[in-house]
Amino acid sequence: MWLLTSCDLAFDITVPTPFVLMLRPRSGAYQWVAREEYRLAPSVPVFEFTDVYGNLCQRLVAPPGPLTVHTTAKVMTADHLDQTPGAPFVEIQNLPDAVFSYLLPSRYCESDRFGEMATSITAGQLPGYDQVAAIEAWLRTTIHYEPGSSDIPLSAVEINAKQSGVCRDLSHLGIALCRSLCIPAHMVVGYLYGLEPMELHAWFEAFVGGRWYSFDATQAELRGGYVAIGYGRDAADVAIYNQFGPAVYPTIQEVRVQRIEEEDA
Amino acid sequence: MWLLTSCDLAFDITVPTPFVLMLRPRSGAYQWVAREEYRLAPSVPVFEFTDVYGNLCQRLVAPPGPLTVHTTAKVMTADHLDQTPGAPFVEIQNLPDAVFSYLLPSRYCESDRFGEMATSITAGQLPGYDQVAAIEAWLRTTIHYEPGSSDIPLSAVEINAKQSGVCRDLSHLGIALCRSLCIPAHMVVGYLYGLEPMELHAWFEAFVGGRWYSFDATQAELRGGYVAIGYGRDAADVAIYNQFGPAVYPTIQEVRVQRIEEEDA
Amino acid sequence: MWLLTSCDLAFDITVPTPFVLMLRPRSGAYQWVAREEYRLAPSVPVFEFTDVYGNLCQRLVAPPGPLTVHTTAKVMTADHLDQTPGAPFVEIQNLPDAVFSYLLPSRYCESDRFGEMATSITAGQLPGYDQVAAIEAWLRTTIHYEPGSSDIPLSAVEINAKQSGVCRDLSHLGIALCRSLCIPAHMVVGYLYGLEPMELHAWFEAFVGGRWYSFDATQAELRGGYVAIGYGRDAADVAIYNQFGPAVYPTIQEVRVQRIEEEDA
Amino acid sequence: MWLLTSCDLAFDITVPTPFVLMLRPRSGAYQWVAREEYRLAPSVPVFEFTDVYGNLCQRLVAPPGPLTVHTTAKVMTADHLDQTPGAPFVEIQNLPDAVFSYLLPSRYCESDRFGEMATSITAGQLPGYDQVAAIEAWLRTTIHYEPGSSDIPLSAVEINAKQSGVCRDLSHLGIALCRSLCIPAHMVVGYLYGLEPMELHAWFEAFVGGRWYSFDATQAELRGGYVAIGYGRDAADVAIYNQFGPAVYPTIQEVRVQRIEEEDA
How high is the ipTM of this complex? Predict the structure, then answer.
């Protein structure tokens, strides 16, 4: 399906403030960006670089006064997420080198502390896709999903204690559980068509059967309409903005996702 | 200045034909892409990757029939190219590791065969920027510039024998001369506002005084209005399309560059 | 000074066990590896790759039975660590792109939770090197250093609560404090000549004044004799071995560092 | 088999001369470096970096006077090169992104000018491994192999005109022919056990059937005993030394390859 996504951010800046934004979706194996727009006011110099995960990052220093960021993208994405029950576990020795680091614990995914729990949740499952599907199902029924957003990411350990969380938090727990079973997993932030309430979204991907598959415990069932903006080990890597110096919070953060025909817009 | 660039390509495909396109300008130190559009007909799956030079490349297989590619970009670029006479030669041992490979000879820049000639052209110049400026001036007065495009790139040796060439060819000779003096140099393809006749353009950058500077022997004087699409060692790395299998030539290749106000378009 | 380092590991393997080892020091800006040896028994196929931090990693599957790993290196390293009081803080917008990720929180360095504490510890210091030196001094006097090693890394938050830890733990807290002040910091594992008791060591580097400087709160004063094996965001990235499947602990882990003359050994 | 390789170089330096050496074999999919030594006299600072092909490069500035370089390595390598007649051609659209650049022409491999010739040499062969084997056989019977070394690399076009060349030259022609058939090919420099006369060697690898295979037209038949030092697009990328400033030639260049038992040496 074709989607038109947009994200508007506004800040009131009091002292010159360095930002690193991550708001430019890239074309990749599962999505094609046919058009995009990126508007900043005031118009300041921006330097773009590619981080170690392949994400496009925009660096700038915001001068005192209002700062607004407006981005839109017209993206072709899958109508349905691929699902392959039975896709096998990939033995460590057969993992691509580049995938290996997604086995390690990270800031919000303390996978070193979830071995027993993951084994219990996935008891009786075939190693691989079915284990991840069991983790996803367990999250869906066990951890209370609170739609909307929160300012401070919580880690897998914290979410497991709290038993509820936003999309980002559920992903952290899902990722930690996968990694503790030696299944590489990483986080994705982006857009989801039909999400309610509409906000930026987070889900996770696990590497089984030789490729990455998407999982999302916040939705009753997996459908399509996902647009990825950034990939990383967890929320620490894929903040849509990192801001340095005295904390600044957005006065506006507005996200829209609209279904369109290819010819439209 | 703000520019609106566009490139239209059309092909008549007879057998399924793999393409690698390089038609997506990236934001970087010297330009900011505020909007871009990339339209393909028919709508085929496209996989995008980043090559070793940081260029975004689009892979696809064109089915038999007509193939059209339409790309536009709204880009902020400098009004004037930076010029710094006297910027010093960077000693080999102080070059950034990533720059080192631009000292080596490449397909169309046989820098291993231009040592004496480069020394003679730059006699009396301060090592560094002034040597490159002398090479650029020498190209401008010595090699006849033929505006427009050619199908087959010529190498520095060939251009030096022929004493005339298109923008790409002059760049090859300029790059070979720089490298033979141990000055890293690479090729850029992209757009130039005001180019006549309007076509895709090629120029080169040399690394002196700790950064890259642009040079362009095809223009009477350096001004601004450049939009880079791709960087590489020479034309072999920065073809806007590589096509595999039986040769296919564009039936349309149309380039436009228009000056706009920021609010426009 | 010239050092001869060695590390011996032994394991009793019961089921085929994938390992990723990181035991090959690399020559770099601050050390030169003149000789190295890497011996495995039994002799199994090993695949080596470079991770995103530039570390050389060795992948293998250990068959059931004893596994021994013996590595030695003859390395030239500095007699004294560089110290530059007053080296200035690097503004975020001037950081090299590749350094930026060392500002983010990571598994064991929850820098997002140390802002106030770091500000208080470094009150009155010039931004930059002097702040890091103040953090190092604070660690030295505040957190009790327990020589030797521990099996489970503790995070900065945990160490701050416990007020004591091994070298790795002190580094985690130092790194978290630096990052919370927007000073990039990363972890190093390796050897230290004269360490008592002799073991693998960990310290941290901070990026100020345009380069990385080493800091080590476990030593009464900074001297030389450091040999780096691996760099990373924290201990999760630089385990000298990662092992998958049922846990296996080394039956032998023996480290030696000997001072030699260049001609020796 | 286990091999003990060594390379000795000596130069008489008259002015401070920057060098980039490539003399450190790396462990990889097909070889394991169990020990290596790298000795320089005089002992100057060396900075090591990894180039875009993954080769370890050593940068230094040689002071006036004699410079000697001594490297040895103890390496486990295959007794026989893998051969898989019938391994299929990989469609362009299925090539790994990282392999794609080995389809492009390069300094000494003008693959853009060998299409007809390659088609004729490989007439009747199955696309893939068998085409490369036919190219190798054609080189063996057509181009006169001159053992030993030469100072100046020749390109595929030049070798084809001259109909004779050293190992490096034959590889250039083999690579150009493969690429002109859309088969990725790259150059390898290293050691070959039993080579007569003993010298540094060059051969090429082609990507068919989903992996790289080695080919060597200088040997009557493919056997094992190869140790790779460097990989690249052609000889321009894999010089064992690049030297800048007034030309300096080695007064000694001595290579040895000895078969040993694992326990030896």
Answer: 0.91
